Amino acid sequence: MLDANGAAIGYKCKKMNTHTPKGLVLFPGSFDPFTLGHADIVRRALSFSDEVVVAVGYNDQKRGWQPVEERVAAIRKLYKDEPRVRVESYTGLTVDFAREQGAAAIVRGVRTMADFEYEMQMADVNRQLAGIETILLPASPQLASLSSSVVRELAHLGRDISAFLP
Ligand code: ADP
User: What is the pLDDT of residues 144-154, one digit of tens each?
Assistant: First the structure.
């Protein structure tokens, strides 16, 4: 960059660290069901981490559309040949599970401004609670309108949902 006199403005940079810090990241969600949008986030998270743990959160008080064991089994089947993806279920606080798993960060996807506001709040709470950072990945444009709830609604109406599932 040049300053007003045309002289180069020098930035004193330390030598760039060429070793990218990697590690395990936790991708928590309901995944009820796991969609192409979720698979896209897993694929992208693998590009900057060593291992992605897909963490299927459940609530004993709230029955999901698909039982949690079925969700876990379906996602495990999907990644059976990908040793860098592990699938687990958990209940309780996401940060507790993230800590238990030794996660370097939590990964979440952002489709809309509403997602963004919610995720910002959650990221802040999780950082305060456990000092864990959240990496927000913008949804790929072609998948940004895909949600598990839309898929459930279509299934409820008897439509074929296979085009939305990996
Ligand atoms: P939750 O109930 O915790 O929001 P979801 O299973 O609905 O769980 O979503 C898990 C994560 O995946 C969330 O961060 C959500 O924003 C993200 N996600 C869902 N659908 C998409 C999509 N189509 N593209 C990118 N991210 C998505």
Answer: 999 999 999 99
* Pocket lined around ligand 1, Cβ cut-off 6 Å: 29-31, 35, 37-38, 40-41, 108-109, 111, 115, 139, 143, 146-148
Q: What angle, rounded to 10 degrees, do the helices at 113-130 and 94-101 form?
A: 60
> Which residue's C-alpha comes closest to atom 23 of ligand 1?
37
* Alpha-carbon gap, residue 128 to 100, rounded angstroms: 17
Contact 89, 59 (CB under 8 A): no
State the CB neighbour count (10 A cutoff) for residue 110: 18
Q: Is 148 annotated in the active site?
A: yes
Q: What is the pTM of this model?
A: 0.89
19 is catalytic: no
Over residues 63-87, the pLDDT tens digits come to 899 999 999 999 999 999 999 999 9
